[in-house]
């Protein structure tokens, strides 16, 4: 039996401790063991672990925490001698001897090289509702006939001592290989001064809570659209378009945004267009749990909206700066994803300024609390970002979303 008093220190050091690794990279380092006295019959393993852990924000949910392993690879770095318990046909099996090993008092270093998998690996991140984590874990166990094979199969529960080292993983995204984005269009119809919003097939808008990114159902505040679809003479059409030149961008870059609007009357609003870069975190407790969406506003531009009184048209261009400390898009993981969108809100009212929305009493929209491992998201300045939730629920306010991908290189 191993004596815990024999151990003075046990830790992992990496050859490049500040490196952010990518899939298929090799990780080299040493496991360091310092003993206060000689030690016999010891086995040391090194595990390369990746997992996703999420927790529900619904307190009554039975799916409060869920963890899924991405990979779990184990190697033995000391003491894995062959033990043959079935190869001896002699009558006295009690005479089977276990190969002994021993470590002397002092410091011992065990070098290693492990390789990250190429698939099923995503950018490291830790946030309020979960994490995508990767680590190296060294474990020490008893090198005995009863415990040897059990320890190799499950060193976590059978170990008497272990240490861990977190790894920074970045999934590379080449933004230059992405396709061109589609133009987002919203067709607006005014039957008898009642607003109906009819999104086109390429339209992506948010619902009243601001968390749905897919194309919503047709919204009819006062009347059923079926009555008007059969009689287009009762409809006054209007449309708005949102264009971004590229689908992918890097941290710190500007995203140009072009907005075209065809309306049915003159509009003059000094803060009529609000453009916001948002991040949507999707947490999925499938197959039996809920799917929850959380929003984070990252940067914002507010510009005037002036519709020409003669043509009832306007076209404006602006841009959004991507914060330098955001992390790249994370998709493909079944349990959690992070996507970025440009949200454009057009306030078609002439007398509805931002101050009339009573925004002073509301905090900025921030559903997620993020402190990621590789990138720092805690320094994003959201003090000057206007919370659009209340505004989006008002009449004569249109919303369009278009996705952008935050990559790592081009």
Descriptive account of the structure:
With 410 residues, this protein is mainly beta. It has two domains: 4-166, Immunoglobulin-like; 175-406, no CATH class. The chain contains four helices and 20 strands. The chain is elongated and about 95 Å long.
Quick recap of the structure?
With 410 residues, this protein is mainly beta. The protein has four helices and 20 strands. The strands form five sheets. Strands 4, 5, 8, 9 and 10 form a five-stranded antiparallel sheet that branches. It has a five-stranded antiparallel sheet with strand order 12-11-13-15-18, with no helix packed on it. A five-stranded mixed sheet has the order 14-20-19-16-17, with no helix packed on it.
Key terms for this structure?
4 helices; Arrestin_C-like; five-stranded antiparallel β-sheet; Arrestin-like_C; ubiquitin protein ligase binding; 410 residues; mainly beta; pH-response regulator protein palF/RIM8; elongated
Radius of gyration: 29 Å
Average residue pLDDT? 79
What percent strand? 35-45%
Distance between the terminal alpha carbons, to the nearest Å?
A: 56 Å
Q: Helicity level, as a percent range?
A: under 10%
Q: What structural class do helix, strand and pairing data support?
A: mainly beta
What overall geometry do the principal axes of the alpha carbons give? elongated
The total domain count is 2
Helix-strand topology string: EEEEEEEEEHHEEEHEEEEEEEHE
Number of strands: 20
- In DSSP terms (H or I, runs of 4 or more residues), the helix count works out at 4
Poorly predicted runs are 82-97, 203-234, 370-380
Largest sheet entry: 5 strands, antiparallel
